[in-house]
Amino acid sequence: MSATLSTDKEVLEQVGKDNVKFVNLQFIDLFGVVKNVTISAIHLEESFKNGTWFDGSSIEGFARIHESDMFLKPDPSTYSIIPWLNSTDGNTARLICDVFTANGKPFEGDPRFILKKVLKEADDMGYVYNTGPELEFFLFRKENGKLSPLPHDKGGYFDLSMDHAYEVRRDMAVTLGKFGISVEALHHEVAVGQHEIDFCYGPALKTADNATTMRFVLKAVAEKHGLHATFMPKPIAGINGTGMHVHQSLFKNGENAFFDGNDPHNLSGIAKNFIAGQLKHIQGMSAITSPTVNSYKRLAPGYEAPVYISWAKTNRSALIRVPAIKKEKPKASRIELRCPDPSCNIYLAFAVMLKAGLDGMKNKYEPPQSVEEDLYEFDDTALAKFNVTQLPYSLFDAIKYMRKSDLVKEVLGESTYKKYLDAKLAEWDEYRLQVTQWELDRYLETY
């Protein structure tokens, strides 16, 4: 689809042109998982007008059983044909939806609505929040029809000779284009079987829609090639995990508010306040940006993932990095938060990231001294000298920090905040009660 549609009428006209017979109405649960209900295309006009009913009590983190009636209202700007469901009998389209309660009000636990609230706060201050996430992923082979962590190739970063997934990535890029997602670059990543596809930077809501779409598209294309695409943060011990570095900037009146050509970092005071806000709140945000037990096996020294809460101009061991900024390209000025991983709910991650940055701006927080040295080489004395602290070391540690975060509670709302914490604590409890193969190998014969 070449042009983005903006109205219900335009979509209904396009549905006729595209011979669409079915429409997948998609929405996102509390943990970023795409949910779907399919309706006949003849009912789409009614869905635009009055919404499509579903049982919210059956969705993780949504309504209680006695308040289960909820409605989906499609966003016309998200219309796309699902290419692998094309048929001579009629095609299937996709629309991302907002969630409403039975009384017609936006559902406060809808991740898309939560992001919209914080974007409205930025808009009231005169700013547009732009993001560009870099989603890494692994491609695994199946053995005897069963899924296991067997890398598809033995290639490395930007490799060609051992990269056997070029055709797969190209197919993924073409398919993403059919969803209106403009791919900028695609390449092999550092670890065997690991890849990255980057798409265009843009307004945060559209970017969150695109990134969430990308996750299910890549899985579908991989399946077509007999492979499995996973965004699990650390599927294989001993090699790099999968991150989602997020580039961010604020624009005001069409100009990049992060740029200041007179500053040594080419960063404005607003940008530094924004950085300081994120550094201040990152521990409380971690259960959102790095939401699984497995996330914290990625956030460990030695695997190009951040551990220390710091910022720097070029240092890739820092939590927030300032990519090279050219004075002749001020609109490209941005900062890069390196701790999120693609298992997160991207809408919630963007929401807490923006809220933390705005808090830094409102309170004029100043960031600590930037650290350009390799933090992984620092001992405790050097870390103390620069007043560098660490990210949570486990999901349980992250839960403890989130419980203390008034900012995250404000972003999610009290009810969703509690549901999220309860679910993550249950996940941690389930994990800690498991007896792993490592424990059997280590202790079974010894004790």
TrEMBL record:
GO terms for molecular function: ATP binding; glutamine synthetase activity; metal ion binding. The keyword ATP-binding applies. Pfam families: Gln-synt_C, Gln-synt_N. Mg(2+) binds at E134, E136, E189, E196, H245, E336. ATP binds at E184, F199, C200, Y201, H247, Q248, S249, R316, K331. PROSITE patterns: GLNA_1 (PS00180), GLNA_ATP (PS00181), GS_BETA_GRASP (PS51986), GS_CATALYTIC (PS51987). Its EC number is 6.3.1.2. GO terms for cellular component: cytoplasm. Residues 111-447 form the GS catalytic domain. It is found in: Cytoplasm. Transmembrane segments: none annotated. Residues 18-104 form the GS beta-grasp domain. Binds 2 Mg(2+) ions per subunit. Keywords: ATP-binding, Cytoplasm, Ligase, Magnesium, Metal-binding, Nucleotide-binding, Phosphoprotein. It is an enzyme of class 6 (ligase). The modification O-AMP-tyrosine is found at Y376. Belongs to the glutamine synthetase family. This is Glutamine synthetase. It comes from Candidatus Bilamarchaeum dharawalense.
